[in-house]
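yo, DUF3311 domain-containing protein is done. seq:
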Amino acid sequence: MKEGLKKQYLWAVFFLGMFLLNYPVLSIYDIPEIWLGIPVLYLLVFAFWFLMILLTYWVIKKTDQDKRV
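structure:
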């Protein structure tokens, strides 16, 4: 993966995270319900956060693999 393309993917992940962890989207899940013993809002905040970490890791790993070849 080219360095410029890597930066574009990382910016896309950043803006996806900004969108998912911003007020209008989070207000959808602000309901008085509990899943697995955890309030839905808290569960989804950590799920979105974990998704952002996984996507960032995947982009960085994919870039490092292409440099070794």
